[in-house]
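Q:
Just now I want nothing more than another pair of eyes on a protein record. Here is the record:
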Amino acid sequence: MTAGLSRLEGLIRWSAASTKTIATKSPGGAITDYLAWGAGSNGITFVNVVPEGARISALVDVNPHKQERFAPGTGTAVVGPESLRGRPVRSIIVMNPLYRDEVAQAAPKLDLAPDIIVA
């Protein structure tokens, strides 16, 4: 088994468990405050393949060349971190575990206090 396949399988297993969390924490079933941090291949795959992934309101990416675009398939918006300021964000799902600390440090600077989940 390749490392990429193992990672994807882990992401799918995680998503099955997190789907219940996303659905139950969302009043009325509408998710407007769950974001995925990372608009690379993992983030795009997440919103397209993972159950409930299409209900993520935006992908966040620090790369300005990815911002103000949309994910293929779902059309999920890709935004920069600054656009999160003042937004009611309940959880950020970090697509790459290497960026967990960076996201955790950025959140308070953006006046956010979300749960940070590593996919």
